[in-house]
Amino acid sequence: STGDREFDRYMSQYIDFEVLNFMLSNMLNLKTSGTELISVSSNDYTDYYKNTLRPGLIDSDAILRFPDGMRVLRRYINMTMMYNEFQFSQETMLSLIDDDSVKAAFILDDAQRYTTYEQYEAMVAKHGKLFTKKFEPALKALELKLRPAEDYPQAPGFEFPDKDGKMISLS
């Protein structure tokens, strides 16, 4: 303990997430037997691993402050889904996250793969209530990236003198 409660709390969370990251990384590795690769099964997990792969482990947005927090979150979700033999869907993945802010960040991370404005609109219609004010800049950036150019009003034409005083028109 350093005596600084905020720092001590942060370091405790950091260590917890680092251990989780290490554990999940090891769980994803394949075992080798000679030259043959064998998938790790749920029988290979110790009680510690089994206790970790449970819904509700991520109950605050602290993981988002952790370096590579989204990657650790995705590993945790994927391993929990596989271990518990859940069907892979975004809704099932979101059910493993208790904190709405983490759910919103997870959805926005997924949305980075969107290629159409319609996908963006569907996401906002379905999950809009999760996006608090702090997510507005990321939502706006995604909207601008995906919105078709013809949806924007035409910029007004204007004239301005160049370095020699000749009027240049942009219209």
Kindly report the average pLDDT value.
Answer: 82
Q: Sheet with the most strands?
A: 2 strands, antiparallel
N→C terminal distance: 65 Å
**Beta-strand share of residues:** 5-15%
If strands are numbered along the chain, what order do they take across the biggest sheet?
1-2
Protein architecture, described:
This protein has 171 residues and is mainly alpha-helical. The chain has seven helices and four strands; from the N terminus they run αββααααααββ. The protein has helices at 5-28, 47-52, 69-83, 90-95, 100-111, 117-127, 136-146; strands spanning 31-33, 36-38, 158-161, 167-170. It has a two-stranded antiparallel sheet with strand order 1-2. It has a two-stranded antiparallel ribbon with strand order 3-4. A hairpin with a 2-residue loop joins strand 1 (31-33) and strand 2. Helix 1 (5-28) crosses helix 3. The longest helix is centred in the first third of the chain and has 24 residues, at 5-28. The chain is elongated, with a radius of gyration of 23 Å. The chain starts with a helix and ends with a strand.
